[in-house]
Design a protein that fits this description.
2 domains; elongated; binds 2-acetamido-2-deoxy-beta-D-glucopyranose; 28 strands
């Protein structure tokens, strides 16, 4: 006699298909009706608690889902197949992230479904709009804390209140063929934010948001990003760094075979002027097309967006061994390459090779500016190289 929305149909596919075990189908009759949080949590518990893992199936339809944490560790691999639309509450209650996966080792999220963060009301709040950090109102849509051996495939993340996906203390994490969408003027709606994580791979994704398509915070190591279509948004950024005293280095980042269209930045490294020391090293941005991008290549070591910070002198983040290779297209500003490094810890071993960056009309040349920079220019040099001032 329990309500339909609370019913889970446990389909033991094992009997008919042999290899597919423990499939928990969410009842599609809860479509549009009411909150399915408890239903989904129950399905998660069953799949997570089974020695041979399990699959949670969300069928097509539209389902309301409140703030929820899917807690591990699980006994086996848990798969989430989402083909329907999951809708966040329009106001985030209690300041928690919308959907959090925590301590899960072996996670697969797939399907053609959509995670709709319903962010438009949150974006209007001053806290989200003017602040650059998360608040009780602007929360992340999909948060992964301490998740290992994970794959995310196929899904769409729409209109998050803050970041779309945030990946923290994760390892061996792969994101493929997903779509992330929010309006160009939505604040802090970064597509994928990665921090304190090792071996994260992102490929074949389409991201258009109001902030960075992908941002790599402190402790991002061995990150491989390829085939990203970015725009609108603020580009693919390493940073911001130099914000907290216990930051770990960023090392081993490759961004390749990607395009930026109508974005504020293309390839960017940003660090605050602060007393925080850190290192960024072994970074490659390679084979990148830019179409009408304001700052195609930018290292900004005096990053200080708007009124949310004050310039506090030189950055102590040391940037070394960074390569920008085969970056072509059009810039909407006449400075297409801007390397503003720190006077205290100048950029070292920067290599710029085969750059062809022209003005928006495709004709006029652009400029490169650099300060406190040690590096080389090779191959095509359009803009002409800037003089080495380190
Ligand atoms: C795991 O799933 C199998 C197959 O559905 C079932 O027979 C078994 O009781 C489940 N085990 C647990 C611990 O839930
Ligand atoms: C990740 O998967 C590998 C290979 O299956 C396994 O050896 C390793 O223990 C897994 N890691 C975690 C944290 O479960
Ligand atoms: C990484 O995770 C995948 C599953 O997503 C697993 O097959 C693979 O063995 C893992 N690799 C390592 C080195 O743990
Ligand atoms: C990065 O991923 C791409 C696509 O999966 C692959 O071709 C490339 O070899 C990887 N690069 C590194 C440095 O792992
Ligand atoms: C950065 O690199 C320098 C020189 O290799 C090293 O002395 C320092 O400890 C590193 N800092 C961090 C935060 O890793
Ligand atoms: C970068 O440096 C140039 C030349 O020193 C300067 O004109 C410009 O304002 C700086 N840009 C930023 C974003 O700090
Ligand atoms: C800058 O370009 C000029 C002219 O092509 C070349 O002679 C010079 O070696 C280049 N400088 C650097 C630092 O690559």
């Amino acid at each position: 006699m329990f309500p339909l929305i609370l019913s889970i149909f446990l389909t033991c596919m094992a009997s008919c298909l042999g290899h597919l075990k423990n499939v928990y189908n969410i009842d599609s009759s809860s479509n549009g009706v009411s909150d399915m949080t408890q239903t989904l949590l129950n399905a998660w518990s069953s799949a997570c608690g089974n020695d041979s893992g399990g699959t949670v199936n969300v069928p097509s339809g539209t389902f309301k889902l409140n703030t929820v944490t899917f807690q591990g560790p699980c006994k086996g691999i848990v798969s989430f197949k989402v083909n329907g639309i999951l809708q966040a509450p329009t106001d985030s209650k209690g300041g928690a992230d919308w959907i959090k996966f925590s301590n899960v080792y072996g996670l697969q999220i797939s399907g053609s479904g959509t995670f709709d963060g319903q962010g438009s009301t949150a974006w209007k709040h001053t806290k989200c709009n003017k602040g650059s950090s998360q608040s009780a109102i602007c929360t992340t849509s999909l948060k992964f804390n301490d998740v290992k051996n994970a794959t995310i495939q196929g899904i769409t993340s729409l209109n998050s209140k803050f970041f779309h996906l945030a990946i923290t203390r994760c390892e061996n994490f792969s994101i493929n063929e997903i779509t992330i969408t929010a309006p160009e003027d939505s604040p802090n709606t970064d597509g994928i934010h990665i921090s304190n994580s090792n071996k994260v791979q992102v490929s074949n994704v389409k991201i258009g948001t109001g902030d960075d398509c992908i941002s790599l915070g402190p402790g991002s190591t061995n990150i491989n990003i390829s085939s990203v279509k970015c725009g609108p948004g603020h580009g693919i950024s390493i940073g911001s760094l130099g914000t907290s005293s216990d930051e770990l280095p960023v090392q081993g980042v490759t961004v390749s075979d990607s395009s930026f269209t109508g974005t504020q930045n293309g390839a960017r490294i940003k660090t605050f002027g602060s007393s925080v020391s850190n290192n960024v090293s072994d970074v490659i941005f390679q084979n990148i097309d830019v179409n009408d991008v304001k700052n195609p290549i930018i290292i900004d070591q005096q990053y200080c967006p708007g009124s949310s910070c004050e310039e506090k002198g030189d950055s102590l983040v040391r940037i070394s061994n960074v390569k920008f290779i085969n970056i072509k297209g059009t810039s909407t500003s006449d400075v297409s390459v801007q390397l503003n490094c720190s006077a205290s810890v100048p950029c070292q071993e920067i290599e710029l090779q085969d750059l062809k960056l022209t003005c928006k009309d495709g004709q006029a040349t652009t400029k490169a500016t650099c300060s406190n920079f040690k590096g080389t220019f090779e191959g095509d040099q359009d803009p002409p190289n800037c003089s080495n001032t380190a």
